[in-house]
């Protein structure tokens, strides 16, 4: 840990950013210095991603200023940030799948000879960079498309290092890596720190952060809460800072009641190597949460139950009868009546240029038509009823759904499925990127639906939501359900601990916090 | 024809209406220019005589029927390059079979080709551009094998001739057929589950699939309908020229696509009104007839034809930019 | 991943499309020569080369927009336009001929450039843009040559449509083609040499420019390409411009081969459609991002050699379309079988 100079390499002051009505970052002051590894901590939606997007030029802040090495800077695009020495390894891969590894690594500034790209030099460069992170086994000739995810992530890191950064940002850049890779990356990062780089490190894995970082900053609800040297705070205190003390009263009250007889039963459900022997049951009137870190198989589980995945093994029973659907048409059919609120409303939930009415009716057209014809009368009644029930704020049902705010768009997606009168409702992170008011309405609605007899399976990346809404929470890790929490046992500590696959009992910090 | 000249009810134009209004205005401009030309050169108003207009629309009917099918396929985000030889094959098989089964045979050939296209695109997910191109080549080969490469000697049946060239109450039958097809397509697109699904697929196939729509079936059906309409056009065209001939469909593919796009449909699928396609067909047919009245050489026609398509699309674009 | 996968094996795997196209071509061509009464002779090779070059050039022209994820429906028309232009200009003194050739290529480039500008700045889809500009190109062609005719310098025509020895003889090179060292290569058709030169001097270097790579990047992931700061707009315009150049070379050769200009609309559309087929047969993905112009050249050669075979077996030449279509269907359907292995149906829509 070399504190070479006191002056920070990067400084942000009073930086704010809003997305529509949602406040992503609010008056943030933040600084990090050269020669250090600086961890950024926070729950999902705390503002970490927005922070690094601003720093790396992907989005522009609404207000505030940024200084790099004492100079005022403003990056209008990622290329400008790269030119200034700020390089980010993104979670979503920025590689071009049809180009070779060597091409990708040198994409922004390939070595040239007489104006032409020098393939040999480029290859040498790729080999050197890959070797420096222990990836000698990746042939730079290979296409990125043909690499497994963990290798792609290493290529992404090599690409970033090739840009000779002064400030390197890693956003969950190790999430898909093998343990051996992670060890190598640690060594590389420590070496880069010795060389005087500043490294911003975002990870959900607490032990990684403890092993690596010198300093840590905690973010919550778009605000910078505290920055402290690593070791100055106990594990428990950090978790407490991340959670905050405010108790949210925005959830409908939960009534403890006897566990109902199962409506949906899932037994030993497996798919590829993404789902491993998942057992789960869902009763009428129950809201069951799916927890865990992103990408542990929650989305795949929901898709499997909705008939989207091919080659699913295991059983799915509804009312005790085998009911694994083979397509969404099948899933929403009379025998099953399953609904899925998909992950990405813009690409999976809505036909954005089409009207609100058309979107609302898109899942229940069969019920709204006589013969092949859509009954305009029935449609108008159903649309008006859906808009009223969910209090969707619209101009006219004939407006394109794209004109609505994010929250109202999501309401349209939910309303469209409620129009099918589903018995089983699967939700994939339905409140992501939505304003607080709409969130609350959705929570209330879920409870009303459950009380009316629906069984609800609810994946969320927001622990608060799981605690506030669910009767039970199944926490997934690596494609399997690791823990099922029920009633008062659903606490933030328990959720985080099982999501990180840490044993609660043996973690003194967590005991301290509770 | 009422559908084509439909006036917008309100001043507030939807994004789908704008191209239709601009194209309609262009049609009127064409009529004015053409009439001015004939007035000056010959002192007549040929273009405005009902008989001349009906004759032009009769010719337009064949293109209109092909374009109606093409529109279904374009709306789902695909394209059908096989209509040229689907049309010719239907015409040839219809005249070969002859008698009362001539027309059903022609339609069945078109339907069958469309089904093959649809299955390839929906189930194998081969890009429609190349799949239909290959099917076109196959159909052409089959027809050459069938006819030996010469114009078939068989003639169109009386019913085919009547439907294509006959007149009822002074109005060509072909126009009635086109109007009939148009009403069906317009109703299907606007009022049926099938039509709604077509737009949904064109906008976002994944969302349509996850909404539990029968996306694959609808893709197959859209191609099948396109094939069958090409078949119908083939049957009519054979009736009009009293027999089928080699390459009779070649002149219909690109103009059909152009008509659909001039009518405001997005070539990537998902948006566009059927009335627009009708307007597009009328525009192309009228442009051709004005140019031939002016005795414009083929060179000038082609250049003007291309320039009109580009200009129209740029005009639609700029309109959209202003809207925000 | 077992450690040392040999480079050549990786390259082969990445170019299975190209490799199968070459294999298919060689098989057909061998078959043809075996059954041809004068098989394996220079005159046959020369004749074949002359008939194949124009389509090969147009197929290369089509490849570049396709790599970018677009399509160019004007390549056949631009070829025809330049063919007509060449029938006026490529005649006279050597200087005039040189000027004519340069003008022809420039005309193709300018037309492609205009296509690119409409696509980039007018934001109109490539397929529609080129549908319309294709009509304009045909119009210009008809204007230049209302009836087939015109003339191309006879020496040039003779020299480029025969073997290298005839080329040398015509222009008095290498002792009139009698030089001893020249004999081992004297039998090669001049047209084939021209094609190889075009590939080596234009395509190969272009692929290694930043613009060339950007074209692949745009076809592979346009968003990622933009985020990486690549010159996306410039690459699109360059792609269409180069496409115009290749189409012009095709038209130029057609003029030299036929010694005339012909504004033939059906021929233009046939070339355009065949160019798309050639691109696909050559292993280039219609979705963009992978493939090469060399593959398309072999795709074009496959299409041509099919018709050669039809000729020697005296089958009506028009029937070849059936075989071409079936081969194309088989090729794309084979690729389509991959769909059956997709386990998450949502991935089908991406």
SSE topology:
The complex is a heterotrimer of chains A (514), B (324) and C (350).
Chain A: E1 10-19, E2 22-32, E3 36-41, H1 48-55, E4 63-68, E5 71-73, H2 78-83, E6 86-89, H3 101-105, E7 112-113, E8 116-117, H4 119-132, H5 149-162, E9 167-171, H6 179-194, E10 198-202, H7 206-212, E11 215-220, E12 223-229, H8 235-243, E13 262-271, E14 275-283, E15 287-291, H9 298-305, E16 313-318, E17 321-322, H10 328-332, E18 338-341, H11 345-349, H12 356-361, E19 369-370, E20 373-374, H13 376-390, H14 406-418, E21 424-428, H15 436-451, E22 455-459, H16 463-469, E23 472-477, E24 480-486, H17 492-499, H18 508-513
Parallel strand pairs in A: 3-10, 3-11, 6-9, 9-10, 15-22, 15-23, 18-21, 21-22
Antiparallel strand pairs in A: 1-2, 1-4, 4-5, 7-8, 11-12, 13-14, 13-16, 16-17, 19-20, 23-24
Helix pairs in contact in A: 4-5, 13-14
Chain B: H1 17-41, H2 50-75, H3 83-97, H4 102-123, H5 128-147, H6 158-165, E1 167-168, E2 171-172, H7 173-191, H8 193-203, H9 205-210, H10 215-240, H11 253-262, H12 274-293, H13 298-323
Antiparallel strand pairs in B: 1-2
Helix pairs in contact in B: 1-12, 1-13, 2-7, 2-10, 2-11, 2-12, 3-4, 3-5, 3-10, 4-5, 4-10, 6-10, 7-8, 8-10, 11-12
Chain C: H1 7-14, H2 16-35, H3 42-67, H4 75-89, H5 94-121, H6 126-144, H7 154-160, H8 164-171, H9 174-177, H10 190-207, H11 210-220, H12 222-227, H13 232-258, H14 265-281, H15 293-312, H16 320-336
């Amino acid at each position: 840990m070399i504190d070479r100079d006191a002056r920070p390499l990067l400084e942000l002051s009073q930086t704010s950013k809003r997305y529509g009505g949602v406040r992503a970052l609010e008056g943030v002051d933040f600084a990090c210095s050269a020669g250090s590894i600086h961890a950024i901590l926070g729950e999902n939606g705390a503002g970490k991603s927005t922070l690094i997007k601003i720093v790396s030029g992907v989005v522009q802040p609404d207000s505030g200023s940024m200084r790099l090495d004492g100079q005022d800077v403003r990056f209008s695009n990622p290329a400008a940030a790269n030119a200034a020495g700020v390089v980010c390894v993104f979670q979503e891969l920025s590689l071009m799948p049809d180009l070779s590894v060597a091409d990708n690594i040198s994409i922004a500034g390939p070595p040239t000879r007489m104006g032409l790209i020098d393939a040999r030099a480029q290859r040498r460069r790729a080999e050197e960079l890959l070797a420096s992170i222990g990836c000698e086994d990746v042939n730079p000739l290979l296409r990125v498309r043909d690499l497994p995810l963990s290798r792609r992530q290493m290529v992404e890191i090599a690409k970033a290092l090739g840009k000779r950064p002064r400030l390197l940002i890693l956003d969950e850049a190790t999430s898909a890596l093998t343990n051996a890779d992670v060890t190598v990356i640690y060594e590389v990062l420590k070496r880069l720190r010795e060389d005087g780089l500043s490294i911003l490190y975002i990870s959900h894995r607490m032990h990684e952060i403890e092993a690596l970082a010198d300093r840590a900053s905690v973010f919550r609800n778009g605000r910078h809460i505290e920055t402290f040297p690593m070791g100055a705070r106990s594990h428990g205190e950090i978790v407490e800072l991340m959670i905050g003390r405010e108790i949210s009263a925005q959830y409908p009250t939960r009534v403890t009641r006897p566990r109902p007889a199962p409506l949906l039963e899932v037994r030993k459900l497996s798919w590829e190597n993404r789902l491993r022997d998942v057992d789960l049951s869902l009763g009428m009137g129950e809201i069951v949460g799916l927890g865990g870190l992103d990408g542990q198989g929650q989305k795949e589980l929901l898709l499997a139950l909705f008939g989207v995945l091919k080659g699913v093994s295991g059983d799915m029973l509804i009312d005790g009868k085998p009911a694994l659907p083979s397509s969404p048409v099948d899933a929403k059919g009379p025998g099953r009546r399953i609904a899925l609120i998909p992950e990405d409303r813009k690409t999976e939930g809505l036909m954005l240029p089409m009207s609100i009415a058309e979107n609302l009716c898109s899942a229940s057209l069969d019920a709204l038509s006589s013969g092949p014809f859509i009954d305009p009368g029935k449609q108008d009644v159903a649309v008006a009823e859906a808009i009223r029930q969910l209090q969707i704020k619209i101009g006219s049902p004939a407006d394109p759904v794209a004109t609505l705010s994010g929250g109202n768009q999501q309401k349209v997606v939910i309303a469209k499925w409620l129009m099918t009168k589903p018995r089983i409702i699967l939700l994939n992170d339905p409140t992501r990127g939505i304003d607080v008011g709409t969130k609350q309405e959705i929570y209330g609605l879920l409870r009303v639906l459950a009380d009316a007899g629906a069984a609800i399976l609810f994946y969320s990346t927001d622990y608060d939501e799981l605690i506030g809404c669910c009767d039970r929470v199944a926490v997934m890790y690596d494609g399997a359900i690791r823990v099922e929490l029920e009633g008062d046992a659903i606490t933030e500590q328990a959720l985080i601990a099982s999501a990180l696959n840490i044993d609660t009992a043996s973690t003194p910090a967590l005991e301290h916090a509770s | 024809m009422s559908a084509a000249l439909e006036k917008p009810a309100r001043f507030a134009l939807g994004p789908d209406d704008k191209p239709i209004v601009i194209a309609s205005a262009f049609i009127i401009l064409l009529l004015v220019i053409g009439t001015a030309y004939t007035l000056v050169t010959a002192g007549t108003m040929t273009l405005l005589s009902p008989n001349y207009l009906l004759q032009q629309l009769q010719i337009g009917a064949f293109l209109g029927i092909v374009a109606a099918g093409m529109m279904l396929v374009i709306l789902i985000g695909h394209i059908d390059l096989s209509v040229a030889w689907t049309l010719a094959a239907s015409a040839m098989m219809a005249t070969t079979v002859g008698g009362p089964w001539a027309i059903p045979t022609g339609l069945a050939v078109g339907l069958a080709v469309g089904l093959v296209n649809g299955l390839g695109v929906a189930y194998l997910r081969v890009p429609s551009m190349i799949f239909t191109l290959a099917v076109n080549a196959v159909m052409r080969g089959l027809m050459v094998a069938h006819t030996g490469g010469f114009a078939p000697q068989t003639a169109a049946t009386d019913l085919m001739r009547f439907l294509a060239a006959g007149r009822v109450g002074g109005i060509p039958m072909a126009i009635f057929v086109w109007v009939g097809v148009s009403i069906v397509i317009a109703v299907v697109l606007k009022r049926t589950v099938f039509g709604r699904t077509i737009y949904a697929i064109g906008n976002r196939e994944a969302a349509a699939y996850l909404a539990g729509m029968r996306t694959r079936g609808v893709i197959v059906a859209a191609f099948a309908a396109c094939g069958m309409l090409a078949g119908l056009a083939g049957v009519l065209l054979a009736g009009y020229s009293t027999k089928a001939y080699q390459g009779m469909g070649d002149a219909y593919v690109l103009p059909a696509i152009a008509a659909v796009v001039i009518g405001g449909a997005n070539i990537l699928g998902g948006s566009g009104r059927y009335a627009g396609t009708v307007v597009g067909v009328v525009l192309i047919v009228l442009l051709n007839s004005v140019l031939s009245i002016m005795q414009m050489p083929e060179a000038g026609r082609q250049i003007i034809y291309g320039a009109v398509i580009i200009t129209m699309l740029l005009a639609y674009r700029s309109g959209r930019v202003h809207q925000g | 991943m077992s450690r040392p996968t040999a480079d050549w094996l990786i390259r082969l795997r990445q170019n299975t499309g190209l490799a199968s196209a070459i294999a298919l071509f060689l098989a057909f061509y061998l078959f043809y020569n075996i059954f041809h009464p004068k098989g394996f002779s220079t005159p046959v090779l020369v004749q074949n080369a002359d008939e194949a070059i124009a389509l090969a050039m147009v197929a290369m022209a089509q490849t570049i927009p396709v790599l970018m994820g677009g399509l160019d429906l004007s390549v056949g028309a631009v070829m025809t336009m330049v063919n007509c232009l060449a029938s006026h200009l490529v005649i006279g003194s050597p200087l005039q001929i040189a000027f004519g050739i340069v003008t022809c290529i420039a005309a193709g480039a300018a037309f492609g450039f205009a296509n690119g500008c409409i696509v980039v700045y007018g934001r109109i889809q490539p397929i529609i843009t080129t549908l319309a500009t294709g009509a304009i190109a045909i119009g210009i062609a008809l204007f230049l040559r209302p009836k087939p005719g015109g003339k191309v310098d006879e020496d040039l025509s003779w020299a480029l449509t025969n073997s290298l020895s005839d080329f040398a003889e015509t222009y008095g090179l290498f002792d009139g083609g009698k030089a001893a060292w020249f004999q081992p290569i004297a039998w090669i058709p001049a047209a084939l040499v021209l094609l190889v030169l075009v590939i080596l001097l234009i395509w190969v270097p272009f692929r290694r420019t930043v613009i060339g790579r950007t074209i692949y990047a745009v076809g592979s992931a346009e968003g990622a390409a933009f985020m990486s700061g690549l010159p996306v707009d410039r690459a699109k315009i360059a792609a269409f411009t180069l496409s115009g150049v290749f189409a012009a070379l095709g038209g130029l050769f057609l003029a030299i081969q036929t010694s005339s200009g012909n504004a033939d609309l059906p021929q233009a559309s046939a070339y355009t459609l065949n160019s798309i087929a050639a691109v696909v047969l050559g292993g280039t993905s219609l979705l963009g991002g992978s493939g090469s112009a060399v593959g398309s050249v072999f795709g074009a050669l496959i299409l041509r050699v099919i018709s050669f075979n039809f000729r020697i077996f005296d089958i009506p030449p028009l029937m070849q379309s059936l075989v071409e279509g079936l081969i194309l269907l088989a090729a794309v359907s084979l690729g389509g079988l991959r769909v059956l292995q997709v386990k998450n149906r949502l991935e089908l829509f991406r």
